[in-house]
Amino acid sequence: MRIEPTTLAGVVVIIPSRHSDDRGYFCELFCEDFFRSQVADVRFVQDNQSLCSRPATVRGLHYQRSPVQQGKLVTVPRGAIFDVAVDLRTNSSTFGDWFGMVLSAENGFQIWISEGFAHGFMSLEPDTITNYKVTAPYSASHEGGIAWDDPDIGIRWPIAGPVIVSPKDASQPRLKEMHADAPVHHQEVAPCV
Ligand SMILES: Cc1cn([C@H]2C[C@H](O)[C@@H](COP(=O)(O)OP(=O)(O)O[C@H]3O[C@@H](C)C(=O)[C@@H](O)[C@H]3O)O2)c(=O)[nH]c1=O
Question: Where is the site described as Participates in a stacking interaction with the thymidine ring of dTDP-4-oxo-6-deoxyglucose found in this chain (predicted)?
Answer without folding.
Answer: 138
